[in-house]
């Protein structure tokens, strides 16, 4: 199996996304842009009786995801596909309206918004083509069954765009902001919505990651240890 010596690493974003996943036995859970599988694996530690599908376009990362599933005794299906490419999704056997829950941490940037890393793998992990965020979320929503739930994490400065896009297909949206410390602006947000719902938007209490001493708050510490969720 290939071993990464550089590139994508999972961190707090993966922990928070997994902590926001409402999953029950028998659910089909799809982790889109799974990389090495951290989000799905964290959720699987809480509910092993769900069915997990990991979608990743990079074959090396997909191989590491497969290895991680095996090492953690998770019966996950690894799908190598480009979520932005309909032909790639179809060739990989990703079925429309098959998922109860889709979890995703989309690349945060689009071409032209910032300087992109010259490293091809890093650039792919952090940047989408122009208009790619809408295409990404449309593809994720297409995988959901009616009344299925999409949960995503993104940068706080893109909340308006994500709300506008997701509102085309989702309702009952729940929005939660993530702050580095209590008196600083949010750096991330978590968005959860139900396909086809007409329920109104709800703003949930924020997550504060660090206290005045720079250490994790009790809530953030519990989330990282897998002792709490955001449900």
Provide a descriptive summary of the structure in words.
The protein is an alpha/beta fold and 231 residues long. It has one domain: 3-Layer(aba) Sandwich (Rossmann fold), CATH 3.40.50.150. Helices cover 30% and strands 26% of the residues. The protein has eight helices and eleven strands. It has helices at residues 12-19, 38-46, 59-71, 86-91, 120-126, 132-143, 159-166, 218-224; strands spanning 28-32, 51-56, 76-80, 99-104, 109-110, 127-128, 144-155, 170-179, 188-195, 202-203, 207-208. The strands form two sheets. Strands 1, 2, 3, 4, 7, 8, 9, 10 and 11 form a nine-stranded mixed sheet that branches. The protein has a two-stranded parallel sheet with strand order 5-6. α1 (12-19) crosses α2. The longest helix has 13 residues, at 59-71. The termini are far apart.
Topology:
Layout lengths: L11 H8 L8 E5 L5 H9 L4 E6 L2 H13 L4 E5 L5 H6 L7 E6 L4 E2 L9 H7 E2 L3 H12 E12 L3 H8 L3 E10 L8 E8 L6 E2 L3 E2 L9 H7 L7
Helix pairs in contact: 1-2
What's the CATH class label?
Alpha Beta
Instruction: Please identify which CATH superfamily we are dealing with.
Output: Vaccinia Virus protein VP39
Tally of separate domains: 1
Question: Which structural class matches the secondary elements?
Answer: alpha/beta
Average pLDDT for all residues = 91
Q: How helical, in percent, are the residues? A: 25-40%
Shape: globular
The helix tally amounts to 8
According to CATH, the fold-level topology is: Rossmann fold
Radius of gyration equals 17 Å
Distance between the termini: 36 Å
- The ordered H/E elements are HEHEHEHEEHEHEHEEEEH
For the sheet with most strands, the description reads:
9 strands, mixed
Total number of beta strands = 11
The low-confidence runs, each spanning 5 or more residues with pLDDT under 50, are none
CATH architecture: 3-Layer(aba) Sandwich
Strand-residue proportion:
25-35%
């Amino acid at each position: 199996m290939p071993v990464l010596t550089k590139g994508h690493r999972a961190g707090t974003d993966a922990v928070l996304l997994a902590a926001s996943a409402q999953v029950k036995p028998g659910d089909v859970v799809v982790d889109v842009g799974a990389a090495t599988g951290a989000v799905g694996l964290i959720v699987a530690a809480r509910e092993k009786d769900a069915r997990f599908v990991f979608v990743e376009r990079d074959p090396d990362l997909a191989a590491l995801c497969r290895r991680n599933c095996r090492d953690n005794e998770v019966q996950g299906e690894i799908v190598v596909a480009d979520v932005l490419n309909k032909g790639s999704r179809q060739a990989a056997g990703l079925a429309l309206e098959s998922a109860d829950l889709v979890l995703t941490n989309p690349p945060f940037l689009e071409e032209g918004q910032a300087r992109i890393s010259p490293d091809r793998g890093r650039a792919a992990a952090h940047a989408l083509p122009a208009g790619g965020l809408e295409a990404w979320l449309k593809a994720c929503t297409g995988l959901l069954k009616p009344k299925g739930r999409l949960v995503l994490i993104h940068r706080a400065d893109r909340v308006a765009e994500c709300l506008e896009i997701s509102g085309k297909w989702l309702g009952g949206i729940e929005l939660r902001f993530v702050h580095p410390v209590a008196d600083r602006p949010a750096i991330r947000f978590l968005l959860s919505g139900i396909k086809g719902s007409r329920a109104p938007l709800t703003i949930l209490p924020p997550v504060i990651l660090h206290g005045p001493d720079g250490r994790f708050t009790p809530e953030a510490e519990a989330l990282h240890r897998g002792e709490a969720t955001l449900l």
